[in-house]
Amino acid sequence: MGNVYIGLVHYPVYNKRGKVITSAITNYDIHDIARAARTYGIHGYYIIHPLAEQIDLAQEIIAYWKQGYGAEYNPDRAEALSILDVYTDINSAVKSIETVEHCLPIVITTDAREYSNTRSYLQIRNMLETDNRPIFLLFGTAWGIQHEVMQQFDYILEPIHGVSGYNHLSVRSAVAIILDRLLGEKWWLE
Questions:
Q1: 69: exposed, middle or buried (Cβ count in 10 Å: 0-12, 13-18, 19+)
Q2: Can you list the domains of the chain with their CATH numbers?
Q3: d(Cα 152, Cα 9) in Å, to the nearest integer?
Q4: Largest CA distance in the chain
Q5: What are the CA-CA distances from residue 173 to residues 30, 55, 95, 160, 169 (Å)?
Q6: At residue 188, what are phi and psi to the nearest 5 degrees?
Q7: Which residues are 9's β-sheet partners?
Q8: Does residue 104 contact residue 94 with C-beta atoms inside 8 Å?
Q9: DSSP of the chain, one letter per residue?
Q10: What is the pLDDT of residues 99-111, one digit of tens each?
Q11: Distance in angstroms (rounded) separating the CA atoms of residues 89 and 104
């Protein structure tokens, strides 16, 4: 299995009216996604945001918990944040993975809708188990990654379907569910 990376995309994403925007970085996304990523052995968690002010905010939060009092107070959080980095755009994050892994990653985006290149959890899980190339899973904030951007990449993971008609999870919840479906123990075989 190749190394798995995740990216949290803040631009280009949609607002609820379908306009392309840049969403704000949230403290919860930094911490909660890092903790889920570390739990499932993710090699790198990348926050992707183009605005310097938001990057500075994220780096300030990360530094607080990785160094000094925050790290002393909660070493588990410091460990989770050790896999986190910030990039200004998706392509920079992809190039970073390519530099580390010496090959381009397979880029898989996520969305609450299906597309022509949508793949099932089972198909992606099988790919993870049989392909040694790195995988980069992209998660959109707000109302999802711009469609034209998503379709530039290799695959789109099928939506998470609950038992009701409601389908608007927080990105933190979606990341945890997807990581468990793709990388969690095969409880159904026991």
A1: exposed
A2: 4-52+84-185 (3.40.1280.10)
A3: 15
A4: 49
A5: 13, 23, 27, 10, 6
A6: -75, -10
A7: 48, 140
A8: yes
A9: ---EEEEEE-SSEE-TTS-EE-PPP-HHHHHHHHHHHHHTT-SEEEEE---HHHHHHHHHHHHHHHSHHHHHH-HHHHHHHTTEEEESSHHHHHHHHHHHHSSPPEEEEE-SS--TTEE-HHHHHHHHHH--S-EEEEEE-TT-B-HHHHTTSSEEEPPP--SSS-----HHHHHHHHHHHHHS--GGG-
A10: 999 999 999 999 9
A11: 16
d(CA 34, CA 139): 13
In degrees and rounded to multiples of 5, residue 129 shows phi and psi of -80, -20
Q: What digits encode the pLDDT tens for the residues 105-156? A: 999 999 988 888 999 999 999 999 999 999 999 999 999 999 999 889 999 9
Token readout for 76 is 């588990």
